[in-house]
Amino acid sequence: MTYVVGLTGGIGSGKTTVSNLFAELGVEIIDADIVARQVVEKGSPLLEKIVEHFGQQILTDEKELDRTALRQIVFNNEAEKTWLNNLLHPAIRAEMVKKLQESTACYVIWVVPLLIENKLTELCDRVLVVDVSPEIQLERATRRDKSKVETIKNIMAAQVSHAERLSYADDVIENNLLLEQGLPLIKEQVQALHHKYLVLAKKEKECQKPS
């Protein structure tokens, strides 16, 4: 299997910004959020099961999953959250592992918000954490997702603590600055890590390092 760098961080930390920068360097990205959307696409068996359980209220006018509506329900109801996780997590994990096994890239960035919570670090050769303060997390995620503050707080509470996440990190990118201020610094770190991962992948997986 390809060399796997697990990229994780709390909600609002900037994982997408970082993964996009790796993608610009030609790195293959396997994103759990994209896979999660694919397994519940319009007409999929899993979406039908979700509608059977929660009703039509979690669908958009186009009959697609309204993720915000579903989030408002499950993150304020532990039993419903558990039901949904038990339905989706095995399917998402199986699809992600399939993509990792099929990859022929020198290394991949595997973006998983709940990498640590779902005990997926065992599938990684290295863990990269995008780190941000809880205060900035809350402000960013509330503004971006147009969700209630209480919902975002519940999501943060369901994730591992700031300290525990960092304890799993082999590499850390700090993202506490405003995007326009922090982006140049993040770009520099991503480029340095890209070189590092190519070297590690060549050494450990015997891949061919691009010229």
TrEMBL record:
> What's the superkingdom here?
Bacteria
Provide a Gene Ontology MF annotation, just one.
Answer: ATP binding
**Which of this chain's residues are annotated to bind ATP?**
12-17
SUPFAM superfamilies assigned:
P-loop containing nucleoside triphosphate hydrolases (SSF52540)
One CC-aspect GO term? cytoplasm
The protein's matches in InterPro entries, at most eight in alphabetical order, are given as:
Depp_CoAkinase, P-loop_NTPase
Give the subcellular location.
Cytoplasm
Q: Which GO terms describe its biological process?
A: coenzyme A biosynthetic process
Specify the pathway: Cofactor biosynthesis; coenzyme A biosynthesis; CoA from (R)-pantothenate: step 5/5
Per its record, the protein catalyses: 3'-dephospho-CoA + ATP = ADP + CoA + H(+)
Top-level EC class, please?
Answer: transferase
Which keywords has UniProt assigned to this entry?
ATP-binding, Coenzyme A biosynthesis, Cytoplasm, Kinase, Nucleotide-binding, Transferase
What EC numbers are recorded for this enzyme?
Answer: 2.7.1.24
Functional description taken from the UniProt entry: Catalyzes the phosphorylation of the 3'-hydroxyl group of dephosphocoenzyme A to form coenzyme A.
The UniProt similarity line reads: Belongs to the CoaE family.
**HAMAP family per the UniProt record, alphabetical:** Dephospho_CoA_kinase
Q: What NCBIfam families does UniProt report for this protein, alphabetically?
A: dephospho-CoA kinase (TIGR00152)
Q: What is this protein called?
A: Dephospho-CoA kinase
